[in-house]
Amino acid sequence: MHRNTLQQVLPKGLTLDRLRQDRILNEAFATGDPLKLMRLFGITEETAMRYVGTAYPERTAKLPR
């Protein structure tokens, strides 16, 4: 299906990019596994860690020195 065709069937205000971001975040909440996110969505390590950090901020919090 062509991108423009898909955009026309989405609810008003929802974009394909936003739909993809929501799907990645949902998977981050479900698994918390950055490697799985990288493989499944073809994103970089940095991007995967941002999603996991958003889903589980306690896992990526900096420890006091």
List the helices and strands and how they pair.
Blueprint: H1 3-9, H2 16-31, H3 34-41, H4 45-55, H5 57-60
Helix pairs in contact: 2-3, 2-4, 3-4
- Portion in strands: under 5%
Low-confidence stretches: none
Structural class: mainly alpha
Rg, alpha carbons = 15 Å
Mean pLDDT comes to: 88
Span between N and C termini? 53 Å
- What is the global morphology? elongated
Say how many strands there are: 0
Largest sheet: none
Number of helices: 5
| Estimated helix fraction | over 70%
- Give, in order, the helices and strands: HHHHH
Describe what you observe in this structure.
The chain contains five helices and no strands. It is elongated, with a radius of gyration of 15 Å. Helices cover 71% and strands 0% of the residues. α2 packs antiparallel against α3 and α3 packs across α4. It starts with a helix and ends in a 5-residue tail after the last helix. It is mainly α and 65 residues long. The mean pLDDT is 88.
List keywords for this structure.
mainly alpha, 5 helices, elongated
Brief rundown of the structure:
By secondary structure, the chain is mainly α.
